[in-house]
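It is worth pausing here to work through a concrete case rather than discussing structure prediction in the abstract. The textbook approach is simple: state the sequence, then state the predicted structure, then interpret. We follow exactly that order.
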Amino acid sequence: MAKITASVFTSHVPAIGAALDLGKTAEPYWQPLFKGYEPSQQWMQDNQPDVIFLVFNDHATAFSLEMIPTFAIGTAAEYQPADEGWGPRPVPKVMGHPDLAAHIAQSVIQDDFDLTIVNKMDVDHGLTVPLSLMCGQPQAWPCPVIPFAVNVVQYPIPSGMRCFKLGQAIRKAIESYDQPLKVQIWGTGGMSHQLQGPRAGLINKEFDNAFLDQLIADPEGLAKKPHIDYIREAGSEGIELVMWLVARGAMADINGGNKPQVKHRFYHVPASNTAVGHLILENQ
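Step two, the predicted structure:
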């Protein structure tokens, strides 16, 4: 049967993708950030998954204010990098895993989570930047990816607890798939940042690191955090952190297994006007 081997959590700042694509990774501003991901790229090479289930949010690329799914699963065979206004990123197209995606959709919907099934969409920096941070700049991504988009842009958005419970349903779905696949589940977005208004540029290091501590040690307690706490402490876009709870809810210890092992933890500010957080947890 398929199994979840690890969860990966990372910010998906668009300027990171631009720095990579324009060859700026060695510049003094960017070098500390990319150095922090070097252990992750080595870990990724040593722990190649068969499939990545990648939780991200679309940035008005695949969806618009005309149609806003709360949860959307990509079931296509492939996904093109999106043109977000300055041309598509020069990265490989993303290959999907339609069979596993369809199986997850069937299982999770039968577990009373309403998913939007997406058979065609382009994927923006929310998905491609995490892949670049973890995999570098290959000719092809190392494995198929199942995109899973969460609405954290237009209210109402799902609660942390809803995301956490969804992760549990996704774990159940993956572990009932009858192929011996090694699956990683990634939660992306965040950390603290605000892009507009009087608090534009807000970064809260104390909140971010407390979030990482609790994500490791007390994820169910963290899932109870109300939206207003994220907005007040982490900025209007800090609410993206609820997507990390989808990935954390899918880990083995939430279903009575052993606590995961922390393989790498990294935090850096700033990257553009955003705090960057990163964590790798391995199931034991």
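Step three, interpretation. Strands lie at 3-10, 51-56, 71-74, 78-79, 94-95, 116-118, 145-150, 182-188, 261-271, 274-282. The first strand starts at residue 3 and ends at 10.
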